[in-house]
Amino acid sequence: MASRTFERFSQSLVRVSALISASDKLRLASNEEADDVLRSCLVLIVSALDFYIHEIVRAEMVDIFAGNKPKPNGFDNYTIALKAFPIKMDAQNALIWFESELKKSLGFKSFQMPDNVAAALKMIRDLKDVWGKIGFLVSVESSTVQRQLSLLVRRRNCIAHEADRDDSFPDSIYPILRTDVQESMVFIRKICEAIDSLVFA
Questions:
Q1: CA distance 42 to 39
Q2: Using CA atoms, how far apart are residues 110 and 120, in angstroms rounded to an integer?
Q3: Distance (Å, rounded) from C-alpha 89 to C-alpha 92?
Q4: pLDDT tens across 33-57, in order?
Q5: Element (H, E) at 121
Q6: Angle at 192 between CA 188 and CA 194, to 5 degrees
Q7: For a tag site, which of 52, 63, 140, 192 has the least CB within 10 Å?
Q8: 51, 4 Cβ separation under 8 angstroms
Q9: Taking Cα atoms as reference points, which of 46, 50, 64 lies closest to residue 116?
Q10: 122-151: per-residue pLDDT in tens?
Q11: Residue 54 to residue 59: CA distance in whole angstroms
């Protein structure tokens, strides 16, 4: 059974699907505007992955801190500033404090590129060869999955930070295809399904 976090992740992809359909209608009037909607879809797809990883890491680390789940080796490698930790605090308030500080510290992190995703998962589970396991579950070679994700994140960054402009040709914008966006959404969904099964097996 999928986790609640995966269900929320899936809701984000439903929104992306709606935007893709909206781009189809918009294309009847303007190709450029329709393409920009597709660009926003790519940004949202990667954002959905980032959200999913953030949420499962936060929830699972809180559970581990509370003693409800075994502590993996990677858990102790995560640091939180203790200067705000009150000297006297009962277990319940300590848990609330930990989650609050965790949200703040995780908020500065990005879990999109393969290495960052693997590092995040190792904080909540003792997993070896994370991408090998994910690749097996999605029936794709580990190196291929990681390369595809890296390319997708780089394209997302190009859209978000560089207006998707191609510096090789002044005033030109990289083309974008509906099929590429659709395939990217399916790809990210498969990755998160695989991660969900690894974390909540």
A1: 5
A2: 10
A3: 8
A4: 999 999 999 999 999 999 999 999 9
A5: helix 114-122
A6: 115
A7: 63
A8: no
A9: 50
A10: 999 999 999 999 999 999 999 999 999 999
A11: 9
What is the model's pTM?
A: 0.92
Q: CA-to-CA distance for 96 and 65, rounded, in angstroms?
A: 11
d(CA 155, CA 43): 9
| Alpha carbon distance 54, 8 (integer Å) | 12
Contact 50, 22 (CB under 8 A): no
Q: CA geometry: angle at 147 spanning 146 and 149, to 5°? A: 65
| Rg, C-alpha atoms of the chain | 19
Q: Quick one: 170 exposed, middle or buried, by C-beta within 10 A (0-12, 13-18, 19+)?
A: exposed
Alpha carbons 112 and 179: distance in angstroms, whole number: 21
What is the spatial distance between Cα 150 and Cα 148, in angstroms, rounded to a whole number?
Answer: 5
Please report where in the chains the tokens 């640091």 appear, as a residue.
79
Residue with tokens 């999605």: 138
Tally of helices (H runs) and strands (E runs) in the chain: 7, 2
Strands (DSSP E) contained in the chain are 165-166, 172-173
